[in-house]
């Protein structure tokens, strides 16, 4: 069984973060391990929402997994601080991991900050050069590009070309926030691949981004090509959103079982 690792935050609600990643790994048939960078939950008295872990705790998890289990592919999700980004980047320089997926998590669905201010330069200069693929959504791509606004599928392609210069092998810009079909673009410096899924009219998409990058990680661990892994991941997330689990108080989560149980995967791929 191939082994995967997620380095990310714990989302107590169970839809996103570490919880989404491990569910995705399980569904796609890889062994999942985790290094938790922070806990995301709202404290009833202080209203504090992000509780980062000490660098020692994070380093201990990474060391344990690398020395006792092994890693065929890994992803990073919410790292939150500059110090954590630098710890993970330095650690990546010491281990040989073939496939590294970087989900540059910065904002939650409603704009919640999931990366502290001042961490961007470390993300760009130290972490991204390790990436096989980075998977920004539109606000993250805009922020990485210094505030440029993305409003069309053509803008996504331009953004992918610009982001590729940051040193990752592949860039996947996710256009879920555009109107019309859910269009993403994958660029490797030469070829632009457009993946399109029908728009599913729902607010219940918590964890879609996390699960997308986790599914790519699972595919890469199993030796799919990057394009195949992204295609499978897009199908996985589309099926999950179609069967999303609504919650009463907050936006619901994608159903991680959907791809395997119902097998829906109506996406189209265009290459140019
Ligand atoms: O979906 C982005 C995200 C990533 N990581 C953690 C989160 C969230 C959003 O809720 O809680 C830990």
SSE topology:
Layout: E1 3-11, H1 17-27, E2 31-40, E3 50-52, H2 55-68, E4 73-76, H3 82-94, E5 99-102, H4 120-127, E6 133-134, H5 138-144, H6 153-164, E7 170-175, E8 182-187, E9 192-197, H7 208-221, H8 226-242, H9 258-261, E10 268-271
Parallel strand pairs: 1-2, 1-4, 4-5, 5-6, 6-7
Antiparallel strand pairs: 2-3, 7-8, 8-9, 9-10
The protein binds 3-hydroxy-5-(hydroxymethyl)-2-methylisonicotinaldehyde (PXL).
Organism: Lysinibacillus sphaericus
Enzyme class: transferase
Protein name: pyridoxal kinase
Outline of this structure?
The protein is an alpha/beta fold. It has helices at residues 17-27, 55-68, 82-94, 120-127, 138-144, 153-164, 208-221, 226-242, 258-261; strands spanning 3-11, 31-40, 50-52, 73-76, 99-102, 133-134, 170-175, 182-187, 192-197, 268-271.
Give an overview in words.
Its EC number is 2.7.1.35. The protein is α/β, with parallel strands linked by helices. It has a single domain, classed as UDP-N-acetylmuramoyl-L-alanine:D-glutamate ligase, CATH 3.40.1190.20. Helices cover 37% and strands 20% of the residues. A ten-stranded mixed sheet has the order 3-2-1-4-5-6-7-8-9-10, sandwiched between helices. Helix 4 links the parallel strand 5 and strand 6 (133-134). Residues 8-9, 11, 16-17, 40, 77-78, 105, 108, 114, 207, 209-210 line the site of 3-hydroxy-5-(hydroxymethyl)-2-methylisonicotinaldehyde.
């Amino acid at each position: 069984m191939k082994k995967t690792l997620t380095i990310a935050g714990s989302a107590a609600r169970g839809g996103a973060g570490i919880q989404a990643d491990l569910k995705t790994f399980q569904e796609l048939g890889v062994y999942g391990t985790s290094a938790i960078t922070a806990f995301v939950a709202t404290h009833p008295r202080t209203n504090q929402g992000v509780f980062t872990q000490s660098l020692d705790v994070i380093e201990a998890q990474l060391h344990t997994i690398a020395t006792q289990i092994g890693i065929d592919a890994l992803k990073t999700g919410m790292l939150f601080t500059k110090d954590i980004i630098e710890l993970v980047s330095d650690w990546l320089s010491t281990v040989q991991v073939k496939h590294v997926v970087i989900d540059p998590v910065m904002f939650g669905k409603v704009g919640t900050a999931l990366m502290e201010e001042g961490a961007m330069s470390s993300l760009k200069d130290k972490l991204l050069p390790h990436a096989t693929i980075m998977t920004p959504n539109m606000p993250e791509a805009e922020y990485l590009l210094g505030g440029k606004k993305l409003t069309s599928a053509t803008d996504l392609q331009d953004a992918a070309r610009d982001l590729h210069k940051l040193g990752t092998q592949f860039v996947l810009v996710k256009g879920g926030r555009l109107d019309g079909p859910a269009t993403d673009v994958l660029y490797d410096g030469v070829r632009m691949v457009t993946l399109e899924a029908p728009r599913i009219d729902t607010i219940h998409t918590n964890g879609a981004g996390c699960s997308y990058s986790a599914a790519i990680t699972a595919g890469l661990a199993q030796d799919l090509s990057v394009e195949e892994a992204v295609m499978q991941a897009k199908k996985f997330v589309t099926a999950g959103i179609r069967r999303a689990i609504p919650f009463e108080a907050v936006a619901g989560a994608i159903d991680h079982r959907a791809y395997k149980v119902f097998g829906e995967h109506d996406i189209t791929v265009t290459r140019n």
